[in-house]
Structure formats: structure tokens, C-alpha cells
Amino acid sequence: MALRLLHPPRKPSSILQNFARYHDYVRLATQGGVIRVPLVSSKVIGIANSRGNRSHQEDFYAFATLALDPEELRISVKKFHGIDWDPKMVGDAFSGQVVFVGIYDGHGGSAVSQYLRQELHGIFESVDKTAIPELFAWIKELGGYFKRFKGGALAPWTQNTENTPPLDLEARATEAFFEVDRNLSTDKVSQTCGATASVALLHSLDAPATPFFSAETLALTVAHCGDTRVLLCSTDGGQVVPMTETHHADAHVETIRLRRMMGSSLITDSFGESRWMGALSNTRCLGDLRYKKFGVTPEPQVKTKLLEGKNWAYLVFVSDGVSSILSDEEVVDLARDARDT
Fold first, then answer.
1. Cα–Cα distance between 187 and 16 in angstroms, integer?
2. What is the pLDDT of residue 276?
3. How far is the C-alpha of 3 from the C-alpha of 36, rounded, in Å?
4. Nearest-CA neighbor of 176 among 290, 300, 285?
5. Rounded CA Rg of the chain
6. Are 10 and 339 in contact (CB under 8 A)?
7. What is the SS3 assignment for 269-285?
8. Residue 70 near residue 95, CB atoms below 8 Å
9. What confidence score (pLDDT) does residue 264 get?
10. How many whole angstroms separate alpha carbon 240 and alpha carbon 232?
């Protein structure tokens, strides 16, 4: 299964972190040993990129292969798919291998989307449960909406991490997204600049190990904030399965969340588009820190799906510059005809 990323059209953040474990290739076992397949190959991940009539690009993407705790992966597979996956069956070289792909749609500038391109995959790989109580204390200090926030997927670890289970992928994604906002909180630009984020994690469950693009059984986890799209294309007539929802204030899931906690601050502009606080299209995003206390959260919506490789052709990531014009079916049709050489 191939991946295709489509998106139209800050200075780099001063908060830089260095992580050494992630890499830009995926390991593949052969009879002669282990080989490395570069993710940048168009036969693995294809990219179409245009800034349209903008003077500069505000949208970015990133991909990497992460090394995660195999026990976390085992717990996630059991929790979301009811499968007893044994990391020992694939060996140490492959048991923690997960491919990470993200698409980031900037608004108000490119500061946050550029930061996500550079840092999110490293942050995702490096977070751990021992940092959650301190992170949760910072979240509560945001006030407003977050005064009543109970921690969501982080709830088991917000007070004490001793004798608690390892993180699963939903909790890891939630911690990583909130950690981004905490890192950006010292950056003045990020007060009024933000980005949506859709991240997919692809974890092969085959034994012997196979890379995601040739896996017979693949665990897909999508962590999502905003209005970018992640679309699965079936080999059965090109049917589309969306893995993300649109996080606008008038969307059903967001209407319930925001009205329960904040009442209504939805304003329709002169173009007929709904805006939260009269300013924002997206009510979940990273950055836009001045709006956090009003309910704009970086907490990702996480969806999972167990894929049988023979039933799925490819996965498409697309920002709203495309999806606001084309339907999901049209996007998938265009991706089907894209060159892969």
C-alpha cells in the first residue's frame, strides 16, 4: 500500500529538540539480511505540492520511521483490535518499527506548521508517561475550558505514574500534541498562529516482519486535529474510507464538546462560514495559544483500523485547500492516476 500526500498552498521555532532514533527509511528483512528502503521513494510515499497564488508556503508534511516501545504497541493492538500480537515473533530489529506520516496545514503564518514538520515526529517518539503530571499541571494553568479538563486519554497518568500501565498510541499522541503547545507557549508568534495536524501511524503485524507497504496485516492509527483529510482507498472499486473528521465549530462532535464546556461563541462571517470566537475555522489545532482557554484544544481525535493489505490500495493525506474543492472520491481518483516513478 502506497501513501500519497496532497496539499496546496516563521521563522523556524527557537525551540529545537534533537532525537537520534527516528530515521528516513524502513527496514526490510531478506534472505541475505536486513535492507533499508528509503521512505522518500515515490513508489513508497508520493508528494504533490503547490502554494497556489500564495507568496509563501504555509503547509508542510513530514515522514519518518520511529522506534517505539514494543510493549506499548502490543497493548495498543490488544486494546484497539483485540489481537494478541507478540513482538518477540518479529525480533528486536523490527518489533518497535512504526512509520509516522504527518500533514500540517498552517494558518496565520507558517510558524507552527514549520515547527511540526521539524519536530513532531521526534516529540512523538520521545514522550513518556513520567512527564504527564507536570504537563497536565501546565494544561490546567491555561484556564477557561481547561479548568474542567480531566485529561482525556492521559487521565490514568495525570496524578501519579507509579504502578501505572505503559502508554498506548492514543495516549502517546495526546501527550505529544499537548507537548507541542507547551513548547510553543514561549513563542509570541504562536499566540495567533496555528496549524492543523493529521498523523498516521502504520504498524505491520506480520511475522516474519514486513514493511507497511507489503504487509498482509497492518494496524493503522490516525491522530487528528483540524480539517485535513486522511483517506483510505479500497481495492474494491476504489471505495473511500475517511479516517478523519472536520473539526469546525459547527461540526457535530465539536458542537457537543464546546457547548457542554463553553456555551456558544459561533459567528457566521460575510461568506457564510462559521467561525469560533469570530476568528477561527478550526476548533482543534496546535498553536493559536491565545484561544486555548476558549476551547481550542490540541487534543487529537484518534481513530484506528485493522487493515488486510490485499484489500487496500493506498492512503491519501490532503489539506483543506484541496478537500474544500474536491470530494473524497475525486481526491482518491486523482491520486489513483498519479505517477509513482
1. 12
2. 64
3. 18
4. 300
5. 20
6. no
7. CCCCCEEECCCECECEC
8. yes
9. 57
10. 6
Q: What is the pLDDT of residue 7?
A: 44
Residue 266: what pLDDT? 61
Residue 338 to residues 4, 85, 230, 335, Cα–Cα distance (Å): 9, 35, 17, 5
- Which of 30, 175, 167, 199 has its CA nearest to residue 98? 199
The residue to which cell 496546496 is assigned? 8
Question: What pLDDT score does 268 carry?
Answer: 61
- Cβ-contact 60, 105 below 8 angstroms: no
User: With the C-alpha atoms ordered 62, 64, 67, 70, is the resulting torsion angle positive or negative?
Assistant: positive
Quote the pLDDT of residue 42. Answer: 82
Positions in the chain whose pLDDT score sits under 50: 1-2, 7-20, 341
How far apart are the C-alpha atoms of 125 and 73, rounded to whole Å? 12
User: For 330, how many CA atoms within 13 A lie in the half-sphere containing its CB?
Assistant: 6
Q: What is the DSSP string of 30-84?
A: ETTEEEEEETTSTTTEEEEE--TT-SS--EEEEEEEEE--HHHHHHHHHHHH---
CATH architecture of 2-8+20-247+301-336: 4-Layer Sandwich (3.60)
* Length of the chain, in residues: 341
Q: In this predicted structure, what is the pLDDT of residue 216? A: 96
Would you call 254 helix, strand, or coil by DSSP? helix
